[in-house]
């Protein structure tokens, strides 16, 4: 198939594209800059120049594709609502282009945990409607199965880890360095799922080939690591003490990530593993921290 990938040069995209190429797909990656274009070509894909603000250009790229894998997102936590509106416009554009064709649209999403229980692929996303996080794009895409679009939701854990990660775990490590203590919120019993980036890339590539229309994929290797364990691993790595941060002080201590780090998000991937024949093989998050993956 000809597969158009947004975010192709990004953290998850750069782990996904090689698997798509290796399995015989012709991959076209979105690139805003010359550096991103060079990275996409090095991964074995051709380049479509543009950005998420150019919906018309994205539709042109989708028009020539058998499948669209939408991984890009504007991670602007200073204007998260605006990023969500952009996301919704992009997904609406893809859906309008693909409607009636039976072609595939795989949309990246996040896991929204239900405190005290483990989320499964059968759970409906709590993010619904244009004002929801990510513009409610997951529900928007899945609803379009009725418009003859083979939509699939790709749910990623809060930490997709590995050397070179600049996401949530890297932010927590930086906060610990700045504060001189590796903190966790409250008793640290709330859980975060995690997956090594190589395993996530393989899961996405398998979903392109195997996930049926309307399905939800959980790219989850570890269903829930207590955040106290994460903080203690960060402390050991940096040689810093570990401490509980009162929930009332979490925003001041951690900044924007405080609310996320204090949330209980546990998720299973049992359905995904059976559906895709996917079995994670990469290191765990705590193994990556111990090996110095976040010391760079």
Automatic annotation (TrEMBL):
InterPro entries: Epimerase_deHydtase, NAD(P)-bd_dom_sf, NAD(P)-dependent_oxidoreduct. Signal peptide: none annotated. Pfam families: Epimerase (PF01370). Residues 3-76 form the NAD-dependent epimerase/dehydratase domain. Gene3D superfamilies: NAD(P)-binding Rossmann-like Domain. It comes from the Bacteria. This is SDR family oxidoreductase. It comes from Isoptericola hypogeus. The lineage of its organism: Bacteria, Bacillati, Actinomycetota, Actinomycetes, Micrococcales.
């Amino acid at each position: 198939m000809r597969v158009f990938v947004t975010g192709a040069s990004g953290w998850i995209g750069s782990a996904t594209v090689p698997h798509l190429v290796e399995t015989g797909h012709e991959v076209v990656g979105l690139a805003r800059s010359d550096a991103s274009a060079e990275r996409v070509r090095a991964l074995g894909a051709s380049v479509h120049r543009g950005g998420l603000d150019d919906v018309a250009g994205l539709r042109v790229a989708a028009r020539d594709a058998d499948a669209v894998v939408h991984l890009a997102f504007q991670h602007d936590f200073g204007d998260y609502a605006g990023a969500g509106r952009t996301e919704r416009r992009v997904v609406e554009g893809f859906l309008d282009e693909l409607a009636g064709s039976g072609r595939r649209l795989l949309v990246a999403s996040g896991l929204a945990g239900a405190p005290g229980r483990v989320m499964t692929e059968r759970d409906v996303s709590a993010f619904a409607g244009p004002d929801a996080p990510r513009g409610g794009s997951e529900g928007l895409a899945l609803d379009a199965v009725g418009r003859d679009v083979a939509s699939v939701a790709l749910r990623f854990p809060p930490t997709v880890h590995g050397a070179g990660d600049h996401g949530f775990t890297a932010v927590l490590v930086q906060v610990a360095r700045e504060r001189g203590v590796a903190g966790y919120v409250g008793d640290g019993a709330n859980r975060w799922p995690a997956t090594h980036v190589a395993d996530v890339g393989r899961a996405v590539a398998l979903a392109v080939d195997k996930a049926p229309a309307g399905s939800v994929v959980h790219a989850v290797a570890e269903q829930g690591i207590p955040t106290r364990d994460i903080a203690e691993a960060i402390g050991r790595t940096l040689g810093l003490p570990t401490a509980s941060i009162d929930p009332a002080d979490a925003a001041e201590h951690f900044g924007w990530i405080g609310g996320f780090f204090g949330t209980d998000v546990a998720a299973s991937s049992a359905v995904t593993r059976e559906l895709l024949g996917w079995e994670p093989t990469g290191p765990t998050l705590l193994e990556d921290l111990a090996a110095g993956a976040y010391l760079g």
